[in-house]
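Hi support team,

I submitted a single chain yesterday and got back a structure, but I'm not sure I'm reading the token output correctly. Could someone confirm the output below corresponds to the sequence I sent? I've pasted both exactly as they appear in my results page.

Thanks,
R.
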Amino acid sequence: MPVVEWIREYPRSVTSDLVPDADDTPDPGPSEPAKRMGATYWFGRSIITPLARVVYRPHIEGRSNVPKTGPVIFASNHLSFIDSIAIPVASPRPVHFLAKSSYFEKTFSRWFFTAIGAVPVQRGAGQAALDALDQQRVLLEGGSTVALYPEGTRSLDGRLYKGRTGVAFLALQTGAPVVPVGLIGTDDVMPVGAKLPSLTRRITVRFGEPLELSHHGPADSGRARRLATDDIMAAIHALSGQELANAYNEVPAHNPIERIKQVLPHERR
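Hi R., thanks for writing in. Yes, this is the structure output for that exact sequence:
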């Protein structure tokens, strides 16, 4: 796969299918040791971060809001493929993302994804989605930082869509604080359909104050997950200033069954 093509595909690999269906109940199970970032990550970060800051001169606000130690969940709006580069570049801590395992098959793409903190997972719904959710839990239990997009996929019209409850589930299950992130201008740097990013636009990355959500209730409560998700999205909205869509950003249905499921009432996790 050409370099430009797999870079454009990266955001879809970490947002679209890596959320469980509403009727799936994740089983925490025994934790495995969290994957540690190795030499490739640190070497790649030492190259990509200063290069990106020189080229794009990002405005970074609220870095002091990010806890220096312990598990952290970054919950961000999602406007462009470069969001998954902007957050690691701006973050004072290493950040894990989930990416399709197929993107680790070729040498250069494997180096790139590892360098920005991506972790390979099998893409898909059902059990694959649950496995991805469990992998994020393991990373958090190991004290790592993970970044997720509650909207589920990129906003094509610039509005902020309703959040799905997977991020809140992880926060309530692990006790990790959620740091809301507001990205501004990434869609100007790399609009949908563009083959290469602009070198003249600047972006803003805003880290909000950590959200402690345990007062909403346990992770197995649908009401607690919904209320916690609403808090997260309100915080993201305050940082990004986007117009609210007041709807879910649904991934296009590929068959009649998926279309029916989207119409019927259900919890968008």
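A quick pointer for reading it: The longest helix spans residues 222-240. Let us know if anything else looks off.

Best,
Support desk
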